[in-house]
Amino acid sequence: MTPAPELLAVTKAMIENIWEARLNDAKQAKAEITHKLKVLDKKITKVVDRLVQATSDTIVAAYERELQKLEHEKRLLKEQQAGVLEPQKSFEESFKL
Predict the structure, then answer these.
(1) DSSP per residue over the chain, as a string?
(2) Reported pTM
């Protein structure tokens, strides 16, 4: 028993739409994380600049804690970015129907 060509065409179109939606979601997620990393790098730079200028031990300790927090957040974002997977091939290359 062979499915009708129309059924195959509809099924292929549905799967391809889902494929493209997931690809777009992955690209958007990576772009958002990249933006967050840039913002975070600017914050880190500001904290380092303030840390260098600080003279009080209490203030230095507070900036060091803030810097550790920001660096931890940066590591988490990089892990998230590495976990966002995009297909290696296009839909057509992956599924030859």
Answers:
(1) ----HHHHHHHHHHHHHHHHHHHHHHHHHHHHHHHHHHHHHHHHHHHHHHHHH--SHHHHHHHHHHHHHHHHHHHHHHHHHHH----SS-HHHH---
(2) 0.76
- The C-alpha atoms of residue 73 and residue 66 are separated, in whole angstroms, by 11
Please give the pLDDT value at position 97. 54
What are the tokens at 18? Answer: 């889902």
Q: What is the mean pLDDT of each run of 10 residues along the chain (97 residues)?
A: 88 91 91 97 97 94 97 95 80 73
